[in-house]
């Protein structure tokens, strides 16, 4: 079993490292071509669709992956659910745009997503296109990892960054609205690729096996139970960008985004290990789960700690020599991001334990606590301490989530 785990982790790790390296190169070229403020604008524009997907999908994507693996839900049926979800997200974004244009009181949610920053139709076009591709891409990545189809996972996560990098190198900066036009072309490429990929899977899948209404009902019930749990991804990947942009500004967001790019190189190693374990956790019966988890979690914590220390010592020279002297202030964000990274990834196996035992609501409650800390602490800290206060809130949230996940998983495994 251990050999099988390591074999899967090795393949996912290679795929994620290559994709992470391409994104790192992309951030270097982008920063040198469009500057600090341009880097911040790009980070904001690609983050908003992910945040909107997590908040408005009601946990459906995670539920589909669970039922495909555990309950033999057909892939074709899942993709039909996904198309409906995409239409719903586009409709929600359209309503948000209307609230901004009409000045309705409920425009506060649009303000939270920093949508008022977009005053040009090109920028709105980019956001709408990325909202179409975001749920599709997220579902496909989760599906390929769950069924351990590493070849398709590799193509999915490396081809789009590679095309984006080639496009960026060739892109002229002398034209008007060069950044906005570049992002529009990139968004079109991502939509065409992800939707075509999903379409090919649909036509190749079995579309005739029946799936009862009662079973479909279970999909939505699991989705709702685990909805808040999906927000934890937003806390770590999206809400930070929105808070920094709202309280500090786009230029500071550019520095923060490049610091995240450095940390992401190391975090992808941790995430790859977790991704390789998803299928194994879901396949285990309850009497086997305790032994499997005990043999894995302690080793992972030590490995993650060593990885974090290595990242701390190499981050400064990477920023100085790769991005240039104008991005050197990003070094100050590295320790906070690494602390948050360590506590977040170290408790991921506990999430798999809870989900495997059909307890997604527990991760939901934990994530809600973390989200409240990030929002509350980020707003208070951003007002009084600026960027420093926001970073403190991220670290505190990661530590509390870590403790709660460990405690709940331990209590659950003691029953077996």
Automatic annotation (TrEMBL):
Q: Which domain of life is it from?
A: Bacteria
Cross-referenced InterPro entries, in alphabetical order?
Poly_Biosynth_Transport (IPR050833), Polysacc_synth (IPR002797)
Indicate whether Transcription appears among the record's keywords: no
Q: How is it placed in the membrane, per its record? A: Multi-pass membrane protein
Q: Which residues form the signal peptide?
A: none
Residue intervals passing through the bilayer: 12-30, 42-66, 122-141, 153-171, 183-203, 299-321, 333-353, 365-384, 390-408
Asked whether the keyword Cell membrane is assigned, the reply is: yes
Location, primary (coarse class): membrane
> Where found in the cell?
Cell membrane
Keywords tagged on the record: Cell membrane, Membrane, Transmembrane, Transmembrane helix
Tell me the PANTHER family matching this sequence.
O-ANTIGEN TRANSPORTER-RELATED, PST FAMILY PREDICTED COLANIC ACID TRANSPORTER
Q: What is this protein called?
A: Lipopolysaccharide biosynthesis protein
- Give the organism the record lists: Halodesulfovibrio aestuarii
Read off the lineage from the record: Bacteria, Pseudomonadati, Thermodesulfobacteriota, Desulfovibrionia, Desulfovibrionales
């Amino acid at each position: 079993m251990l050999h099988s785990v390591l074999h899967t982790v090795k393949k996912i790790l290679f795929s994620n490292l290559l994709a992470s390296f391409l994104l790192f190169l992309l951030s270097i070229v982008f920063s040198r071509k469009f500057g600090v403020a341009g880097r911040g604008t790009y980070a904001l524009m690609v983050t908003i669709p992910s945040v909107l997907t997590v908040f408005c999908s009601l946990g459906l994507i995670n539920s589909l992956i669970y039922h495909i693996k555990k309950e033999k839900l057909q892939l074709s049926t899942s993709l039909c659910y996904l198309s409906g979800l995409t239409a719903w997200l586009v409709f929600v974004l359209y309503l948000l745009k209307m609230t901004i244009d009409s000045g309705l009181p409920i425009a506060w949610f649009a303000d939270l997503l920093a949508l008022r920053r977009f005053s040009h139709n090109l920028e709105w076009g980019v956001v709408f296109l990325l909202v179409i591709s975001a749920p599709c891409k997220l579902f496909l990545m989760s599906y390929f990892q769950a069924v351990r189809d590493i070849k398709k996972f590799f193509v999915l996560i490396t081809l789009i960054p590679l095309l984006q990098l080639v496009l960026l190198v060739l892109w002229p900066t002398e034209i008007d609205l060069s950044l906005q036009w570049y992002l529009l072309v990139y968004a079109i490429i991502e939509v065409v690729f992800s939707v075509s990929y999903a379409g090919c899977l649909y036509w190749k899948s079995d579309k005739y096996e029946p799936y009862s209404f009662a079973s479909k009902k279970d999909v939505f019930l699991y989705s709702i139970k685990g909805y808040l749990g999906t927000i934890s991804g937003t806390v770590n990947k999206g809400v930070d960008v929105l808070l920094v942009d709202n309280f500090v500004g786009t230029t500071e967001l550019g520095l923060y985004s490049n610091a995240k790019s450095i940390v992401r190189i190391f975090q992808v190693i941790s995430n790859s290990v977790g991704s390789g374990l998803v299928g194994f956790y879901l396949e285990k019966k309850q009497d086997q789960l305790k032994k499997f988890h005990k043999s894995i979690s302690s080793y992972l914590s030590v490995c993650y700690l060593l990885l974090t220390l290595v990242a701390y010592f190499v981050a400064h020279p990477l920023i100085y020599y790769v991005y240039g002297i104008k991005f050197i202030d990003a070094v100050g964000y590295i320790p906070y991001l690494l602390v948050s990274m360590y506590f977040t990834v170290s408790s991921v196996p506990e999430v798999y334990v809870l989900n495997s035992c059909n307890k997604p609501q527990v991760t939901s409650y934990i994530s809600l606590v973390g989200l409240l800390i990030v929002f509350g602490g980020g707003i208070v800290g951003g007002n009084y301490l600026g960027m420093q206060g926001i970073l403190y809130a991220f670290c505190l949230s990661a530590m509390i989530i870590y403790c709660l996940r460990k405690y709940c998983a331990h209590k659950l495994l003691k029953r077996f």
